[in-house]
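Good morning N.,

You mentioned wanting to compare the apo and holo forms, so I went ahead and generated the holo version with pyridoxal-5'-phosphate. This is what I fed in:
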Amino acid sequence: MSMPALMPVYPRCDVRPVRGEGCYLIGERGERYLDFASGIAVNALGHGHPHLTKAIQDQAATLMHVSNLYGSPQGEALAERIVANSFADTVFFTNSGAEAIECAIKTARRYHYANGNPQRNTLITFDTAFHGRTLGAISATNQAKMRDGFEPLLPGFAYATFNDLAGALALIDDHTAGFLVEPVQGEGGIRVASHEFLQGLRKACDEHGLLLVLDEVQCGYGRTGTLFAHEQYGVVPDIVSAAKGIAGGFPLGACLATQEAAKGMVFGTHGSTYGGNPLGMAAGSAILDVMLEPGFFEHVATMGNRLRQGLEQMIPNHDHLFESVRGMGLMLGLKLKSDCRQFVAHCRDHHGLLMVAAGENVVRILPPLVIEEAHIAEAIEKLSEAARTFVPASND
Ligand SMILES: *Cc1c(COP(=O)(O)O)cnc(C)c1O
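and this is what came out, ligand included:
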């Protein structure tokens, strides 16, 4: 057998979606799935949202791409809206989360360079972190499964333990540029940073002249019930990377920074051919049109609480399988006492419910942010039923 035409780097399952309708996906054979995966926290407005769809259609017919050689009224308008609604003074648009991380790393290094401290080039990052698959991004995690075989990786990273403030502070030295951390680790298993941890990192940054760089690629853009998760910590970052939900399924990312943190990013220091093109900007604007409507984030918080309560109430009935619930807003994790990948496959194949496996045997529950009570009830029913019918395979 020759290698498949599509490079076989993903262990793809048998669900082959061909259409989406709101919170549901429809497969090749017409079967329906309740989509509590949302393309891994991307389809924030579900599938086929009329406002997002129309914005993309209209912009595609008007002007799709021009390059960054020319002025960008579309980019200026979206950047100004993001700035008006966040800590940031300035935004660089990318096509993905990993590129938003690359821009954040470059911005942080360049800040210290601009200050005459080029030796301050090391970011302290955290175990079980996930920042994407570029060489820079895999260098910023110490998860072997992402790094093996790709050495030499990028120097300039030191690794501490997530939520261990003292351990992170102990790594600060003359080469430290700052910290790079997810307020809620997604891939790592929906691990929520403690308030003490994030606030302590902020304080250390202030004391040592370091930058607090947050990876909000997964937890940002309304997922936790605020536009950015850090808002709920009373912590103001210097640099934030965003992507996933930012354009509801159109490939877009962004690196947000304060004026001070971005001081090194002058003409010629960074670029992207597609990044910030009019089509991406239209998708990003349409998402903000919806998210900034009064009540949107409250809806996420309310639905998050309901879903969490539903999950917590279900646990005692299936305590052979379910251990606990964690997370924030609609970024929830159900920790299992059994293999989470097998259970995710079981829910998918036998109960029409899509979720995502993550680290620490945690099932990631990431519904579209526009779910209603009925979707929650349906998900809880499917999960209970799935827990009753699940038989863990002994050797897998
Ligand atoms: C998904 C993800 C990334 C990488 O985003 P891509 O668009 O896949 O490059 C980075 N950081 C976090 C926290 C993510 O969840």
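The mean pLDDT is 97.

Happy to go through it together on a call whenever suits you.

Best,
F.
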